[in-house]
Amino acid sequence: MLDIVDRRPHIWHVNLQTNKSYRSHRTDVTDAAVETLRPLVQADGEYSIPNIEGRTLWVTRSGKLLLATVQAENPICTIAVAAQTVGADRLWQMLHENSKLATRADYLPPDNPWAAIRTEAGLADHPADIEWLSDFERCLAWTWLEKVSPKR
Length: 152
Fold this sequence. Notes:
7-stranded mixed beta sheet, alpha+beta
């Protein structure tokens, strides 16, 4: 029998401004990246982002939900990762509240786990950051998923 369905573990990634989405697989992220970011998801708090001078990450965790904001002198982007159903819809709505940039709250990723990135007004002061933020979001999402669902 021919099986054409990709059954590898994946994360749905959504950009809230463009509404573009894609699926990533663990093989899209190096073990070294996950190891580097692991300390950032161990507890709530503020962390310096490794290898990115002048950027911090504010982290809040609840169950298998993660909310994190990348900051310079102002917020640059907000990242959310949901690895559970309970609370995921509320986390999604939180991403659309108090946003200074337009988002589409009516779209919800088809299943868990998902990760979403919302750019913030502070990105205008640091336009070069757009080059690494997408990779960072993907790596942070897989780091979180491995912490809360290590058997994936």
